[in-house]
Specification:
Elements (H helix, E strand, L loop, with lengths): L1 H19 L6 H25 L6 E7 L2 E6 L4 H24 L6 H20 L3 H19 L5
Antiparallel strand pairs: 1-2
Amino acid sequence: MNTAAWLILLLPLFSAVLIGLGAFRSRIASAVISVGAVVGSFLLTLLVIAAGGELHPSVIWLAIEGLQIDIGLRFDTLSKLMLCVVTGVGGLIHVFSLGYMKEDRDFSRYFAFLSLFVFSMIGIVLADNFVMMFIFWELVGISSYLLIGFWFE
């Protein structure tokens, strides 16, 4: 179940990175990867909820004398509910955007930014400590800025 927990967070990030680096020149491939990543996160969320219990997977990020900062995820009742909302609504926004952005020339860039935003929101919901919450809060701000300024070059 720990693998599913990490995949919920990382699928939208992988999507944003792949599309952002231009791995998929095709508009259709970019859309399929982006929508698939967010819908995949939603389905994995349902799997984690169905499994029940709490999860707290973590890895050591920084360890110096007297200080240890972990990268950890917290799956409790509230975070599971909010994760369901974020991934569910994020998936619906992705599907809606397929039609809304179909004529835009920067279609792929938009989906890269949108996947980054969903990754950041999932990170806030699952953050296990204040350091991670701050990092994801800043990522939400950056990705919001990129989406708001999308049509301004």
